[in-house]
Design a protein that fits this description.
Distance between the termini: 45 Å
Radius of gyration: 20 Å
Structural class: alpha+beta
CATH class of the largest domain: Alpha Beta
CATH superfamily of the largest domain: Aminoglycoside phosphotransferase (APH), C-terminal lobe
Shape: globular
Largest sheet: 5 strands, antiparallel
Mean pLDDT: 96
Strand order of the largest sheet: 1-2-3-5-4
Number of domains: 2
Strand content: 15-25%
Number of helices: 10
Low-confidence stretches: none
């Protein structure tokens, strides 16, 4: 991804919104999309998201924003409001001589700090469990606007012939030994998830990316941002996404207990759902391994690449010991 070209696009795009003169973009995250903090004199701040080409179509972004609005209005989950452009549209499209037209959304700025995996996250994860439960309850009764277009985060999206983030086998560090362990894990996951099923009480529209980078802690309150990966999947996948890139952290068992406690304060959860969380942790981990292989130009992938496959294999060996036969 060409950062100077993206920066030029972000600067040019300022005219599409009614922002103060002299507003300047500063890159704060590069993952699927490029996210910029927009600042101007007088204390103005907003967030500009430039969408990755070919990832989410215009209609899919409309559906994302529709769910966010419905959650804020009816679901008890505060979400960032999109700021309409000068033409009244929440989604703007613009290109430059260097970049083909990209979809863009500007959001209001929400106060808060991204949590660190080494700080005490128990209270945050208890709140996060409650947020997940409210989102799941909302989806179970929400009439989706039609046509409704979002990503899918099932085993086919991770392991099928056209995986969303690529094939985990192509990731750095996947040698023959690791490939053997992970192939056995993939087969077990496929079997267990088929048996678990897709009942309305366990599968539906989910945030799908509740990791630390998408949380804001402000005055002891946890806020959830960035619904760009929201799509259809198992509800318990939301916990797995919450511990992304830190699945082997010693704090995880405590965070899992806190998340479940917060979840059950809002919505009942069957023992089968709790047991299968381990499967979703492995499903997510293998999806992230594939992501590292296909997004090698991002800082996150570069930092994770040297050790991610090896740790994934260790986690997979433990999963196989507990659930295979």
């Amino acid at each position: 991804m060409r950062l100077p070209a993206l920066a030029s696009l972000a600067t040019e795009a300022m005219v599409l919104w009614d922002v103060p003169g002299g507003a300047q973009p500063r890159l704060i995250n590069l993952s699927e999309n490029a996210t910029y903090l927009i600042e101007a004199d007088g204390g103005f701040r907003s967030i500009l998201r430039i969408h990755r080409e070919g990832y989410n179509a215009y209609r899919a972004i409309e559906c994302e924003l529709a769910w966010m609005a419905a959650l804020s209005r009816d679901g008890g989950v505060e979400t960032a409001r999109p700021l309409a452009g000068r033409d009244g549209r929440a989604i703007q499209t613009h290109g430059t001589t260097e970049l083909s037209p990209r979809h863009m959304v500007m959001f209001e700025f929400l106060e808060g700090d991204e949590p660190d995996p080494d700080q005490d996250l128990v209270a945050a994860f208890r709140q996060l469990g409650g947020l997940a439960a409210r989102a799941h309850l909302h989806v179970m009764s929400w009439a989706l606007p039609q046509p409704f277009e979002r990503l899918v985060w099932d085993d086919e999206a991770v392991f099928g012939p056209a995986p969303t983030w690529g094939d985990w086998r192509d990731a750095p560090g996947v040698d023959d030994r690791i490939a053997g362990i992970l192939s056995a894990t993939e087969a077990l996951l496929r079997s267990r998830l088929a048996a678990y099923g897709r009942g309305k009480d366990r599968y539906g529209l989910i945030h799908a990316d509740m990791r630390l980078a998408n949380l804001l802690i402000d005055g002891g309150q946890t806020r959830l941002i960035d619904f760009d990966d929201s799509g259809f999947g198992w509800f318990m996948y939301d916990f797995a996404a919450g511990i992304s890139f830190m699945e082997d952290h010693p704090q995880v068992p405590t965070l899992r207990a806190a998340w479940l406690e917060g979840y059950r304060e809002v919505r009942p959860l069957a023992s089968e759902d709790e047991i299968e969380i381990d499967s979703f942790v492995m499903l997510r981990r293998l999806a992230l391994l594939a992501w590292i292989g296909s997004h090698g130009d991002t800082d996150l992938a570069i930092s994770q690449a040297p050790h991610f496959a090896g740790v994934t294999a260790t986690l997979a060996e433990d999963y196989l010991k507990r659930f295979d036969g």
